Amino acid sequence: TRDSTVIIQALVRALIFVVIAGVTTFLSIKRKRAEEILRQAHDELERRVAEQTEELRQVNEELRTDITERKRIEEKIKRSAIVDSLTQIFNKKALIETLNRDIEASLSTKTPTTLVFIDTNGLKLVNDTYGHIEGDEYIKLIARNLSDRVGEAGIVFRFGGDEFIILLPNFDKSKATKLLKSVEEDINLLNESANKPYKMSISYGFAVFDHEHPVSSDTLLATADKEMYKMKNSFYERLRQKNQFKDWS
Q1: pLDDT digits (tens, 9 = 90+) for 49-66
Q2: N or C: more exposed end of the chain, with fewer CB within 10 A?
Q3: What digits encode the pLDDT tens for the residues 216-238?
Q4: Could you tell me the pTM of the whole model?
Protein backbone atom coordinates (compact mmCIF):
# COMPACT_ATOMS: atom_id res chain seq x y z
CA THR A 1 0.00 0.00 0.00
CA ARG A 2 2.83 2.34 0.87
CA ASP A 3 4.46 1.56 -2.46
CA SER A 4 1.21 2.18 -4.28
CA THR A 5 0.86 5.55 -2.66
CA VAL A 6 4.38 6.49 -3.69
CA ILE A 7 3.71 5.38 -7.24
CA ILE A 8 0.46 7.36 -7.40
CA GLN A 9 2.17 10.47 -6.08
CA ALA A 10 4.93 10.09 -8.65
CA LEU A 11 2.36 9.69 -11.42
CA VAL A 12 0.49 12.79 -10.23
CA ARG A 13 3.70 14.81 -10.15
CA ALA A 14 4.59 13.58 -13.63
CA LEU A 15 1.13 14.44 -14.88
CA ILE A 16 1.32 17.90 -13.34
CA PHE A 17 4.74 18.38 -14.93
CA VAL A 18 3.38 17.29 -18.32
CA VAL A 19 0.40 19.60 -17.96
CA ILE A 20 2.59 22.52 -16.90
CA ALA A 21 5.01 21.81 -19.74
CA GLY A 22 2.14 21.60 -22.20
CA VAL A 23 0.61 24.81 -20.95
CA THR A 24 4.00 26.53 -21.05
CA THR A 25 4.61 25.29 -24.58
CA PHE A 26 1.12 26.37 -25.62
CA LEU A 27 1.59 29.80 -24.10
CA SER A 28 5.00 30.10 -25.74
CA ILE A 29 3.51 29.21 -29.10
CA LYS A 30 0.66 31.65 -28.58
CA ARG A 31 3.13 34.38 -27.53
CA LYS A 32 5.30 33.79 -30.58
CA ARG A 33 2.23 33.80 -32.79
CA ALA A 34 1.03 37.00 -31.17
CA GLU A 35 4.50 38.54 -31.60
CA GLU A 36 4.50 37.47 -35.24
CA ILE A 37 1.07 38.99 -35.77
CA LEU A 38 2.21 42.21 -34.06
CA ARG A 39 5.37 42.29 -36.15
CA GLN A 40 3.40 41.78 -39.35
CA ALA A 41 0.91 44.45 -38.29
CA HIS A 42 3.80 46.82 -37.50
CA ASP A 43 5.47 46.14 -40.85
CA GLU A 44 2.17 46.69 -42.67
CA LEU A 45 1.65 49.95 -40.81
CA GLU A 46 5.17 51.09 -41.65
CA ARG A 47 4.59 50.20 -45.30
CA ARG A 48 1.33 52.13 -45.45
CA VAL A 49 2.87 55.13 -43.67
CA ALA A 50 5.78 55.07 -46.14
CA GLU A 51 3.37 54.89 -49.10
CA GLN A 52 1.25 57.75 -47.78
CA THR A 53 4.38 59.79 -47.01
CA GLU A 54 5.60 59.29 -50.58
CA GLU A 55 2.18 60.22 -51.94
CA LEU A 56 2.18 63.39 -49.84
CA ARG A 57 5.73 64.19 -51.00
CA GLN A 58 4.68 63.81 -54.63
CA VAL A 59 1.59 65.96 -54.08
CA ASN A 60 3.70 68.66 -52.38
CA GLU A 61 6.26 68.50 -55.17
CA GLU A 62 3.52 68.90 -57.75
CA LEU A 63 2.09 71.82 -55.80
CA ARG A 64 5.51 73.46 -55.57
CA THR A 65 6.04 72.93 -59.29
CA ASP A 66 2.61 74.32 -60.04
CA ILE A 67 3.20 77.36 -57.83
CA THR A 68 6.65 77.95 -59.37
CA GLU A 69 5.23 77.66 -62.87
CA ARG A 70 2.35 79.99 -62.01
CA LYS A 71 4.78 82.54 -60.56
CA ARG A 72 6.94 82.25 -63.67
CA ILE A 73 3.91 82.88 -65.88
CA GLU A 74 2.82 85.80 -63.70
CA GLU A 75 6.31 87.31 -63.87
CA LYS A 76 6.36 86.82 -67.63
CA ILE A 77 3.00 88.59 -67.95
CA LYS A 78 4.17 91.44 -65.71
CA ARG A 79 7.42 91.73 -67.66
CA SER A 80 5.63 91.71 -71.01
CA ALA A 81 3.55 94.65 -69.82
CA ILE A 82 6.62 96.85 -69.28
CA VAL A 83 9.16 95.45 -71.79
CA ASP A 84 9.22 96.27 -75.49
CA SER A 85 8.91 93.06 -77.50
CA LEU A 86 11.22 94.17 -80.33
CA THR A 87 14.17 95.60 -78.42
CA GLN A 88 13.70 93.86 -75.04
CA ILE A 89 14.21 97.16 -73.22
CA PHE A 90 11.61 98.90 -71.06
CA ASN A 91 8.62 100.46 -72.79
CA LYS A 92 6.60 103.67 -72.39
CA LYS A 93 4.49 102.28 -69.53
CA ALA A 94 7.63 101.52 -67.54
CA LEU A 95 9.00 104.97 -68.40
CA ILE A 96 6.05 106.84 -66.88
CA GLU A 97 6.26 104.85 -63.65
CA THR A 98 10.04 105.25 -63.40
CA LEU A 99 10.05 108.93 -64.31
CA ASN A 100 7.54 109.80 -61.60
CA ARG A 101 9.58 107.81 -59.09
CA ASP A 102 12.82 109.55 -60.16
CA ILE A 103 11.17 112.94 -59.80
CA GLU A 104 10.16 112.10 -56.24
CA ALA A 105 13.69 110.89 -55.52
CA SER A 106 15.19 114.09 -56.93
CA LEU A 107 12.93 116.18 -54.71
CA SER A 108 13.87 114.08 -51.70
CA THR A 109 17.63 114.02 -52.29
CA LYS A 110 17.82 117.49 -53.89
CA THR A 111 19.77 116.07 -56.85
CA PRO A 112 19.13 116.48 -60.59
CA THR A 113 17.68 113.91 -62.96
CA THR A 114 18.27 114.33 -66.68
CA LEU A 115 15.87 113.03 -69.31
CA VAL A 116 17.24 112.46 -72.82
CA PHE A 117 14.80 112.29 -75.74
CA ILE A 118 16.30 110.39 -78.69
CA ASP A 119 15.08 109.98 -82.26
CA THR A 120 16.58 107.53 -84.76
CA ASN A 121 17.49 109.40 -87.93
CA GLY A 122 16.36 108.11 -91.32
CA LEU A 123 14.23 105.15 -90.19
CA LYS A 124 11.54 105.95 -92.77
CA LEU A 125 14.13 105.87 -95.54
CA VAL A 126 15.46 102.52 -94.32
CA ASN A 127 11.93 101.07 -94.13
CA ASP A 128 11.00 102.35 -97.58
CA THR A 129 14.26 101.33 -99.24
CA TYR A 130 15.29 98.12 -97.48
CA GLY A 131 12.06 96.94 -95.84
CA HIS A 132 10.65 96.96 -92.32
CA ILE A 133 12.70 93.95 -91.23
CA GLU A 134 15.85 95.97 -91.84
CA GLY A 135 14.17 98.94 -90.15
CA ASP A 136 13.53 96.79 -87.08
CA GLU A 137 17.17 95.72 -87.14
CA TYR A 138 18.18 99.39 -87.17
CA ILE A 139 16.02 100.06 -84.12
CA LYS A 140 17.43 97.04 -82.28
CA LEU A 141 21.01 98.09 -83.02
CA ILE A 142 20.39 101.57 -81.64
CA ALA A 143 18.61 100.15 -78.57
CA ARG A 144 21.50 97.78 -77.88
CA ASN A 145 24.03 100.56 -78.36
CA LEU A 146 22.19 102.86 -75.93
CA SER A 147 21.79 100.13 -73.32
CA ASP A 148 25.44 99.10 -73.50
CA ARG A 149 26.73 102.65 -73.18
CA VAL A 150 24.31 103.77 -70.43
CA GLY A 151 24.85 100.61 -68.40
CA GLU A 152 23.96 101.04 -64.74
CA ALA A 153 24.16 104.84 -64.90
CA GLY A 154 20.53 105.06 -66.01
CA ILE A 155 17.69 103.30 -67.79
CA VAL A 156 16.85 103.19 -71.51
CA PHE A 157 13.23 103.03 -72.69
CA ARG A 158 11.65 102.64 -76.09
CA PHE A 159 9.14 105.49 -76.17
CA GLY A 160 7.57 104.30 -79.40
CA GLY A 161 8.45 103.89 -83.07
CA ASP A 162 11.97 105.20 -83.56
CA GLU A 163 12.06 107.19 -80.30
CA PHE A 164 13.91 106.36 -77.10
CA ILE A 165 14.17 107.93 -73.66
CA ILE A 166 17.09 107.74 -71.27
CA LEU A 167 16.65 108.57 -67.58
CA LEU A 168 19.86 109.57 -65.82
CA PRO A 169 19.52 110.07 -62.04
CA ASN A 170 22.17 112.33 -60.48
CA PHE A 171 23.20 113.59 -63.95
CA ASP A 172 23.31 117.26 -64.83
CA LYS A 173 23.20 118.39 -68.46
CA SER A 174 26.99 118.56 -68.79
CA LYS A 175 27.46 115.00 -67.61
CA ALA A 176 24.59 113.78 -69.79
CA THR A 177 26.04 115.54 -72.83
CA LYS A 178 29.36 113.72 -72.40
CA LEU A 179 27.51 110.42 -72.23
CA LEU A 180 25.60 111.12 -75.46
CA LYS A 181 28.80 112.12 -77.23
CA SER A 182 30.12 108.67 -76.31
CA VAL A 183 26.92 107.16 -77.70
CA GLU A 184 27.48 108.97 -81.00
CA GLU A 185 31.06 107.71 -81.12
CA ASP A 186 29.81 104.17 -80.53
CA ILE A 187 27.33 104.52 -83.39
CA ASN A 188 30.07 105.78 -85.69
CA LEU A 189 32.12 102.68 -84.87
CA LEU A 190 29.01 100.58 -85.45
CA ASN A 191 28.60 102.12 -88.90
CA GLU A 192 32.12 101.02 -89.74
CA SER A 193 31.71 97.46 -88.46
CA ALA A 194 28.09 96.76 -89.45
CA ASN A 195 28.72 97.60 -93.11
CA LYS A 196 25.13 98.71 -93.67
CA PRO A 197 24.05 100.39 -96.94
CA TYR A 198 22.89 103.37 -94.87
CA LYS A 199 24.42 105.45 -92.09
CA MET A 200 22.95 105.11 -88.62
CA SER A 201 22.65 108.22 -86.45
CA ILE A 202 20.47 109.82 -83.78
CA SER A 203 19.15 113.21 -82.76
CA TYR A 204 18.62 114.00 -79.09
CA GLY A 205 17.56 116.65 -76.61
CA PHE A 206 17.87 117.12 -72.85
CA ALA A 207 15.57 118.17 -70.04
CA VAL A 208 16.90 118.44 -66.49
CA PHE A 209 14.64 118.12 -63.47
CA ASP A 210 15.69 120.76 -60.93
CA HIS A 211 14.37 120.25 -57.40
CA GLU A 212 14.38 124.03 -56.87
CA HIS A 213 12.16 124.56 -59.93
CA PRO A 214 10.14 121.33 -60.16
CA VAL A 215 8.00 120.58 -63.22
CA SER A 216 5.74 117.70 -64.22
CA SER A 217 6.86 114.59 -66.09
CA ASP A 218 4.88 115.76 -69.13
CA THR A 219 6.74 119.07 -69.12
CA LEU A 220 10.09 117.27 -68.95
CA LEU A 221 9.17 115.09 -71.92
CA ALA A 222 7.90 118.04 -73.93
CA THR A 223 11.05 120.07 -73.20
CA ALA A 224 13.40 117.24 -74.19
CA ASP A 225 11.30 116.54 -77.30
CA LYS A 226 11.55 120.19 -78.35
CA GLU A 227 15.32 120.19 -77.83
CA MET A 228 15.63 116.97 -79.80
CA TYR A 229 13.86 118.54 -82.79
CA LYS A 230 16.33 121.41 -82.76
CA MET A 231 19.09 118.87 -83.33
CA LYS A 232 16.93 117.00 -85.86
CA ASN A 233 16.39 120.22 -87.84
CA SER A 234 20.13 120.85 -87.82
CA PHE A 235 20.62 117.34 -89.17
CA TYR A 236 18.11 118.01 -91.95
CA GLU A 237 19.77 121.33 -92.72
CA ARG A 238 23.11 119.62 -93.23
CA LEU A 239 21.38 117.21 -95.61
CA ARG A 240 19.87 120.12 -97.54
CA GLN A 241 23.30 121.63 -97.95
CA LYS A 242 24.49 118.31 -99.37
CA ASN A 243 21.35 118.06 -101.51
CA GLN A 244 20.40 114.83 -99.73
CA PHE A 245 17.33 116.02 -97.82
CA LYS A 246 14.83 114.51 -100.27
CA ASP A 247 16.27 111.05 -99.54
CA TRP A 248 15.73 111.39 -95.77
CA SER A 249 12.47 113.34 -95.51
Answers
A1: 777 777 777 766 765 655
A2: N
A3: 999 999 999 999 999 999 888 88
A4: 0.69
